[in-house]
Every structure is written in structure tokens, then in C-alpha cells.
TrEMBL record:
Keywords: FAD, Flavoprotein
Residue ranges annotated for the Photolyase/cryptochrome alpha/beta domain, each copy included: 6-138
Organism listed in the record: Stereocaulon virgatum
Cofactor(s) this protein cannot do without: FAD
Entries under InterPro entries matching the protein: Crypto/Photolyase_FAD-like_sf, Crypto/Photolyase_N_sf, Cryptochr/Photolyase_FAD-bd, Cryptochrome/DNA_photolyase_1, DNA_photolyase_N, Rossmann-like_a/b/a_fold
Protein name: Photolyase/cryptochrome alpha/beta domain-containing protein
UniProt region (Disordered), positions on chain: 173-205, 574-657
A Pfam family per the record: FAD_binding_7
Compositionally biased region (Polar residues): 192-203
Amino acid sequence: MAPSKPRVIYWFRTDLRLHDSPALKAALDLKPECLYPVWCWDPHYVYRARVGPNRWQYLLDCQSDLSASITKLNPKSKLFLIREAPQTLLAKLFKAWKITHIVFEKDTDAYARDRDENVVSQAKGAGVEVIIKMGRTLYDPDELVRANGGRPTMSITQVQKAGEKLGEVAKPIPAPKFLPDPGDTSLDFEHTQPSPNPDFNNIQRDEDDQSYNALAGPKGDFAVPTMAELGLKPASSQHRGGETIALKMLDEIISNTQYTATFSKPDTAPTAFAPQATTLLSPHHHFGSLSVRLLYWRVMDVLASYKGKQSTIPTNLIGQLLFRDMYFGAQAPLGYCFAQTVGNSHCRFIPWHLPSKIDPSNGLITGDHHIDTPEAETWFQRWKWGKTGFPWIDALMRQLRYEGWIHHLGRHAVACFLTRGGCYIDWERGAEVFEEWLIDHEVACNTGNWQWLSCTAFYSQFYRCYSPIAFPKKTDAKGEFVRHFCPELKDYPDKYIYEPWKAPIADQKKAGCLIKGDGDDTEGEGGMKIYPKPMFDFNARRTICIDAIKNAYHVNLYGDNPKVKDGTWRELFSDSAEGPTEGKSAKDASSANGNGEAKVKSGEEASGDMGVDQDEDEAAEVGGETRGGDRQGKRKRGKGKGQETLDGHFGGKRAKR
DNA sequence: AACATAGTTGCCTAG
DNA sequence: ACTAGGCAACTATGT
């Protein structure tokens, strides 16, 4: 009996490209009789990941461009976009389309691993062969971790050393010249509707979500959804996705050999816009519309022939890619806990304001947070919406919201301000906002960078604190960036542009904008604009925060410490510490931070639970596995029962200091 | 073992 | 306009 020719599903996910795809090459090497390029509209992304309109649009751009490129290679083919969860859909497709193989690119994100394990086991049960190839990073994160002694990669030198053991980064593979026909695409099976619970993206929609109305879309043609179908208003960002654009951007960067060879991240201006100072390739790497290995080798080619003085690792473009791999290598062994403090063996515990609520059933953050003081919540909201009264911070947050991208050092500035250098608010709050608004949001990189900036992992020089006044002055003394994104300040004199509250009233009136209030009003009498007063004395907050971090470093708890989970960490923090540290003795510590700033504690939650629901504190070890595969839809299940320990999954790996 | 140095990206003042 | 050193002080790594 001659073996029948392979009938292959190529499952596209975060690899929306045809060039340099080891997985796609593996699919084509099977010489299949038919190849189905498939995208499953995953409810995890639709409901559970936070995604604002700009990243939705970027994703649709990538899908449309990829689909067009597929059709260009084979007019019978396209990206078949099917509106159902992969966990329920793929097994039905195996049967309906007589599939023999499924091929996809490896994804080491915590959720992706769960999803893919599920699909792999269903494929095996159905007799479908699975082929998985790495292509998302320079090195396979799991191999990188193995070469790092099984430990998460926490520094760039570790990545370099581990990388050397793994040998040369894979050379890019050319895009295919042809693609096989797809087979019959009938969908003669029941449509499994997802449960939109929780739905973190409800706030993004102003119309009904119709993304799951029909398996093959409203026209039955497997088309890429429209923003309207998703219930979303149009994107505000000018940044557009897609492999075609990505390759053009790459060509432009590489053709500027001086830029490519001398690029040095700390020397690029975060105040530069239109054009920005860095490459803006990160969203393409996120969606896979540009291969990082292609960028790597094209940069290496330039470096090999460029005669002038070059920048070096870690500040050059190669270094940037190594940092990306470092974060993937930090995330890979830590799983879900990498994205939070509680349970994370490599993240310092600091008693931030607005700590996450934890689901006792799996030890994972729920997406909701405790409000330990109303003041901190106010600061958080003003930070998020660009109304802090610090123009540099507000301009960055508005650029983030409108355009979905800000310069890396701008991210430093706003992240430092929210956490260790201003508000003393939990980095998880900031990471959630970035997750929602960034077009290049990558869970490993976003998490890692927030830990870096909050000095909870990767970086520890907390006394180096970004000033919202001095820092932007270095590259933009005239405040052009602020004038663009905070136009109400556009006529302010240069000397007041970063601290407009210092301008005399006469100057404020002359510039057509009064500095007053807390951001609720934007326009006053006679068309006079209003910009808020600064929400605190920055230098005073800076001192409070540095003292508090220093103290927390001395207490020296990590996220996997039992005291973090059971609440007894409070006993280790004196009443004079910033943050919700007073615990049971809150009443005695009303104004005790030594800087004359009376702390405002809400009666409701000041001495309440932090990070963990206290009812659940008696939790004992119940099995070793808390991967949280059931995060969607069932997070309120089993309160008080079946909870598992938050610590010990990665126990014994790091000697505590 | 004790110590020195480096670490992608701080700020301020004096000269 | 630019640089050097002080500021107060963290961890990881190497000798």
C-alpha cells in the first residue's frame, strides 16, 4: 500500500510571514498534496489578553498582508481564518479535511505552551503527526536555559555564554517560491462558541463583538475580520503591520550602514518622533512579520564590512536582540509566575501600592487589584491617562495610547515614575497598561522590562532614578515632544515646558493654558486651556521611594517566599516604610514616613490582604502543578478549596541571601 | 576569601 | 558645551 501524500495544516500564530520560517519550510519539505494555511481566532487573545484597537489593527494588517502574499504564490490559497478556539477547532479540522500533519512554530509563552500541549495530545490521539520548529527568537529559549545550567537567563552575559555553547544563530531561510493548493475547505461540523468570561477587552468595544458569529466569517470566505466585526472603533495609530512593510523597513535600516553599525540604544533620543530614533521593528518581531534571525544576520553582514567605529554588544542592534532572547530565556522556565511577583523565585517582593489580587485556586494574578490607598489609585489613573501634571510623563503616556509605541527610554521614564521613582505602585499595574496599549507587546519582554525598571529583577541600581524634568531636557531642551503630545502646552516658554507649574500666572495666560486642578478639566473660561498641577512633589517622592526600596532590599524577600503568600511579610516591614506595610498596626502609623507626608490609608483595605486572599492562607501543598491552564472562564471556581501552594514550584534553586 | 570592577541607558554641581 | 566626580549604594562576576 503506497503511503498517501501528506495533507498538512500549517498553523500560523505569532509567525505571520513567509520568509525565514523554519516551520513553514518543514511543512513544505513534506511535499504535501495540500497545505492549509490556518489561523484560529483564539478566545484567549480576544477576551483574556488585554488588547487595544491599535494592536488589533496591527494584527489584522499582518494577517491581510500574509494572506495576500499566500494568494500571490497560489491563487487558490489564502490565510484561512477560522473563528474558533484551536483547542476545539483543530481536532475537527483533522477529521473534516483528512489531515495527516500539523506544523507550527514553537511558542514558549506560558499560555501558548498549555494550548499547544493540548493540541499536540489531540493530534496524537487522531493519528496526526506534529512538527514544531523554533523561529521566534535567536535561540530556542529552552535550549538557552539548558545551556545556562537550567536557570532562567537573568543577565546579558549569561545569554552570551549560553549562546556560545549553542553555536551560531540559525541562518535565515528564503521565502517559498510556491505553495501547494489547499484541499476542500468545507466546515461540516458544529461551531463551538467560546465563553467570554472574563472579558478584559469589553472596555475596548463600543459595538457588539461579532467575531465568533460564523466559523468562516460573515461572508463564509475565511476573510480577516474587520475592526467593526470585532466591535472596535478605528485604530488611532499610524503604525501599520505586515511582512511587506517589515521587509521594506528592514531594507531601509540596513541600507543605512552607518546607522546600523553605530546604533547605540542609550544614545538614541526618546524625545525623537516622526521619525523616531530607534527601528520600530519590535511589533514586527512580536507578530513574526519580521524574523529576528534575518535582522540579526543582515546586521552582522553590515558589521563585517563597516570600516568606521562600530557600537558593540550590549548597546548595538545585536545586543537588543540578545536582550529579547534574555527575557524569553527568563520566562521559559518560570512559566506563568514570570509575569507576576507572587510565586516568582526570581522577582523581589516589594510592598507596592495597588498589589494584584491572587486567585487562591492557582496562585495566579486575577487581573484585578487591591486599592490599599485611594491616593495611589488616583495616581495610577492619572498616570495611565496622561494627567500627572508632569508634561514629559503625560506626553509619553498619550503617545502610548494614541500610537501604541514609545521609545524604549520613554518606557523607562514612565515605568520608573510609576514604580520605584514616584508613585511606588506595583509594576504589574504598569505592565497591564502596556499590555493593553503597546502594538509591540510581548509578554516576556514587557514583564522583564517592568521588573528591570522597578528593580525587582535584572537590575538593582534603584538610586539611579529618572527625573521627569532633567531626563528629557538632555535630548529636547525646547520640549518639542511635549508640545506635540500635550498641545495645550505648546505655547509655553522653553524654560517652563517640563515644569509648567513654575510659570507665573501672566505667562500661563499668555500661553493660553492655566496650570490648575487634577486633570478633570481640560478647558476653562474663554477657551483657556487647563493642564493639571503636578500630582506630587517629585523630589520628595523620589526620596521616599528610594528609602523604601532600600528597606525592601534589606528585608530581602522573593516572590516565592512563603511570607509573601501568607501575609506575614508585613511583620518584616516597619511602620515607617512606604506602601501598605502597616498591617495590623495601621492605626498607630498615620503619619510615620519621616518626610512629613501624611499617609492616606483607606479604612477599607489598608490592613487588608495583600496579594493573597487571606481566607486561603492555610493552603497546603496540593499537587505540584499550578500551570493555570484553566485561567479562562473558571477563575472564580473552587474558592477555598483545592488551592495549591504558591511557593516551591521552583524551590531550592536560588540560595537566599 | 576579600576585594575590585562592571553593569545597555541618573542627577547635580563644579570647573 | 563639555567632563569629572560626588552622590548613596544595588548585585553579579572575576581575580
